[in-house]
Amino acid sequence: MYRIVTIALSVFICCSGIQQASAQLNQQEITIMQTLFGMDKRAMAVQAMKLSAPDSIAFWPLFDKYEMQRSELSKRRIDLAQGFAQRFPNMSHAEIDAMIDAMDDAEDDLRDLIMDYYDEIKERSSAQTAAMFYEFETYINNAVAIHLQQGVSLVAQFPVKPKP
Fold it and tell me: What is the pLDDT of residues 52-69, one digit of tens each?
């Protein structure tokens, strides 16, 4: 548990300033940031998972493939969250609903990706290695989401618009 707390603190340190800077980031900067975070994340996974040599051989190529797909989903999630934050007070009922549906779909896609790789890792390595991957990914994603959510204005602070 101590190791996971240490990893979470590392994630928070890596992510500090993301909320403040996110409005200024262009697509290229987002790609660079995710590339750097992916490298840091891999190092954290190495430390947290402590895989045997045979498990490492099976696991790391899958993890790298997963990270490439996850980073594409993360770009989509960032774009949606930024769009919502920038446009929210002036959005119609239908636009708010569509944006929430799109953000929920992006979250579902990430959960589906994690489970797809859980199954593949379990098949190529072991259920224990797959469970470590699942636990690590879930923990990191939740920690990042909580950190980013702390700087987001809540929808409730705005007056309620009547439904058309």
Answer: 999 999 999 999 999 999
Question: For residues 111 and 86, what is the distance between their CA atoms, to the nearest angstrom?
Answer: 26
Residue with tokens 């702390």: 150
From first CA to last CA, the distance across the chain in angstroms is: 50
Task: Look at residue 163 and tell me if it is in a domain.
Answer: no
Structural contact between residues 132 and 49, judged by C-beta atoms closer than 8 angstroms: yes
Residue 91 within any structural domain of the chain: yes
Token output for 119: 């199954």
Q: State the pTM of this model.
A: 0.71
4: pLDDT strictly greater than 60:
no
Q: Is residue 70 part of a domain?
A: yes
Instruction: Compute the distance between CA of residue 87 and CA of residue 84 in angstroms, rounded to an integer.
Output: 5
